[in-house]
Amino acid sequence: MAATIRDVARASGVHVSTVSRTFSAPHLVNSETRNRVLAVAEDLGYRPNRAARALTTGRTHNIGLIVADISNPFFPPLIKAAQAHARARDYHVFVADTDEDPLVEEELIHTLAKQVDGVLLCSPRLSNRVIERLHADVPFVVVNRRVKGMPTILMDIGQGARLAIEHLAGLGHRRIALLSGPTGSWTSGEMCAAAAAAEGVEVVIMGPNAPTERGGLAAAAEVIGSGVTGVLAYNDLVAIGLIEGLYERGVRVPGEISVVGVDDIVSGRLNRPKLTTVAMPTAAAGRMAVDLLLHSFGDGATPTLATLETSLVVRESTGEAQK
Amino acid sequence: MAATIRDVARASGVHVSTVSRTFSAPHLVNSETRNRVLAVAEDLGYRPNRAARALTTGRTHNIGLIVADISNPFFPPLIKAAQAHARARDYHVFVADTDEDPLVEEELIHTLAKQVDGVLLCSPRLSNRVIERLHADVPFVVVNRRVKGMPTILMDIGQGARLAIEHLAGLGHRRIALLSGPTGSWTSGEMCAAAAAAEGVEVVIMGPNAPTERGGLAAAAEVIGSGVTGVLAYNDLVAIGLIEGLYERGVRVPGEISVVGVDDIVSGRLNRPKLTTVAMPTAAAGRMAVDLLLHSFGDGATPTLATLETSLVVRESTGEAQK
DNA sequence: TCAGGAACTGCAACCGGTTGCATGAAACAT
DNA sequence: ATGTTTCATGCAACCGGTTGCAGTTCCTGA
């Protein structure tokens, strides 16, 4: 049906190897011949078969992108950026969702390993031990998790958490809560570390919480009971859920309790009150992760670490602490 | 490096074809032999190479999923469901984003065509003519667009729009606005058709609007100027943006103007006022689209049309019309 | 004038599976 | 005992490219 390299060879009177080189090593073929071959190929609508190419070269020109939950609004901008960036470099992206389940994540890596040249692991829930073991099968770039000797993109959430805590402290809050995220989340760990190191404020850690608005909703009662006046939530969804839960119980934000989220998702910007939040450079992280992965194919694996800055976006969900 | 079919054959003392059949046609091989081969394969960590298999069978076991904008919260639940459903059937999914650009969409289909067994086209911006032409290259299932002779999943937005309009009419609104979506959007066309057919209410159509909250924000002035008391927006993002724009101009929702969205995205549920909206069965659509596509591989292309019902979710952004 | 390259191109093996056909052995019918 | 199936497996060509090697032609410089 579709034209193959042999059809093109026949129609342009050269050997298949010449056609092959026309596409994969143009400088090795005479420009006159090359143009003729290209014209014929164009005419026949020939496109190289990537599966066949993959077979001999061992390079599929595909990459895998594994996230915990596509529906979590934190990920789509990252996926979108990574996918566009990869495509511009002639790579296609398999996107897979683990449903926050480490076992699914591991199985996914296995089945994907043979089909891709490398995998972008975003906010993995797997332990470092397992990740290191799987690394033998396929190159990784890890996003939002520190794994020894592996190319890594980090969004500096520790710094973001410090910014958020200082912001609250500056508004006079003396006792604040940290709503931590899922066990196994590096992000959550970093936030807890930042909280523990905070000076001049008492930070009580609550959790783990599901990284969804339900998780935030469910935490409302405990937050009220704890007597804090400020909250740093694991992410914006949790923050929004929490605000909802507080409203239901008649507690006003930011009047009585101030809330800071993390991620700067669209919903937060549209929420009322508009969410004060730690903005994460997700699109940049997606692009950089692709770059790092493709780069790691080239030379002999230079593990690199890139840390991207986060920033605090002050909107309406935080205010002066109540006397 | 990785074990191949020949390694397994050698180690288990049979010919490669027997190993091949063990995996792709188990009933053709003696159960004793089969078990031995399976044991050896397990031992060597053998996994069939899909690229090689694709080369001979012509089936890649991959499908493409093309959406206009991954960041649009309407799509992630669909992507998530489709991806999970496909994986359970041993298919992997390439996700690609066209940035709402028909040209990118066309190019994407071309480059993907050779790499996948079929493509899920979600809310395409391409004209039917072009889609029909491209259909020669690769099987499609089209979601949210009616294309003659092609397997199609429709979410009945016409019915949803009628429900929304009746809801507004029931609340006493006599003059309402329809904020239409991008040119080329089938959904938008259906909504306009439903609006034109509405009885007992006057519907003025405004647009096209960008399918984002910016689009809604930008439409606020015109909505106020038009003297309508109710609005049906192209989607929830537009609705939320519009509400924001109305607030900025001192117009209250639902006090002075009622607003209905479409999609039932999370942000709408979390918005204040909570959005009244037409809920779309996105996850079901994703699963069904995968089923239809895989089914179409089997027999001789039975174009099927599935229409999924939509429903109106009444929340807080709609109320009695002002006298 | 001739050795030594450089520039092109053809040849053929190979990547890792699949599959139609042939072979041989065992099971069955007559 | 002989002919016919059925079952299990081996053989080898093939899918559509890539690539090391070798051969040819032509150019260069001594």
From TrEMBL, chains A, B:
On whether Transcription regulation is a keyword of this UniProt record, the answer is yes
Say which domain of life the source belongs to. Bacteria
What range(s) does the HTH lacI-type domain occupy?
A: 3-57
Keyword Repressor carried by entry: yes
For this UniProt record, give its keywords in alphabetical order, as a comma-separated list: DNA-binding, Repressor, Transcription, Transcription regulation
Q: Which GO terms describe its molecular function?
A: DNA binding
Q: Which PROSITE patterns match?
A: HTH_LACI_2 (PS50932)
What this protein is called in its record is LacI family DNA-binding transcriptional regulator
Write down the species: Streptosporangium longisporum
What taxonomic classification does the UniProt entry list for its organism?
A: Bacteria, Bacillati, Actinomycetota, Actinomycetes, Streptosporangiales
